Amino acid sequence: MREVSRIPVCPKCLRDTEPLDAEFFCVSCRTPFQNGFPLDSEGRCGLCRSGLRGFDAAYCFGSYEGTLRELIHLYKYAGIRTLSQPLGDLLGRALPIEEHFDAVTAVPLHWRKQWHRGFNQSELLARAMARRRGVPVVRALRRARSTAAQAGLSNSDRRRNVSAAFRAVGGVQKLAGKRVLLIDDVMTTGSTAAACARALKQAGVAKVVLLTVARVDRRLPAGMDRTIDIGGGKQRDSK
What we know:
By secondary structure, the chain is an alpha/beta fold. The protein has a single domain (about 10-220, about 225-235), classed as Rossmann fold (3-Layer(aba) Sandwich), CATH 3.40.50. It has helices spanning about 10-15, 45-50, 65-75, 85-95, 110-115, 120-135, 155-160, 190-200; strands at about 25, 30-35, 55-65, 105, 140-145, 165-170, 180-185, 205-215, 225-230, 235.
């Protein structure tokens, strides 16, 4: 039985998270829309039609707001690593049971940021999902260069910011022709995940599916303050 006392969040808050809901979704990246106008006859959005996504499909549990956003902040910025367990449960709920993979990998942090944070939040989530699906975790990517925070950048600037930022590493060799589940905590525009997916596919991976705990819902009003207060200090809401 899970040792809930190790998670400094009340059970109500852990339960107070809701799945993302919308009448209109892109069938590939699951981006929610207010109406069906951005989707083609096959139900795909413009980015997926143009091939800019990089990954083959994307799933997420909920919208990056409210209680879910606060839980991710506590996990990511306050260093409450035990939240990887309940957040991993949400990942498990988001991924359809019929999706099968040969391995799980995580979006990497630059080594300086990982040293400063003390851990890679996406890697802990990847381990949780690998245990649930009974497949191995493979370190297949590294961040070749440090990048500016994505917060505040336009979509095109985000893509340029992470262009060629990721490289496949030795572990990817065993993934040639395989299906890989790529894990991250939050999807904003998908630029980071797309860059990772391209690096994996260039190394021979056959299929890349993105899975995140939350995603920014573009249907909500823009301009949300991306500066949060953790432990009395300010922290930019970024990778």
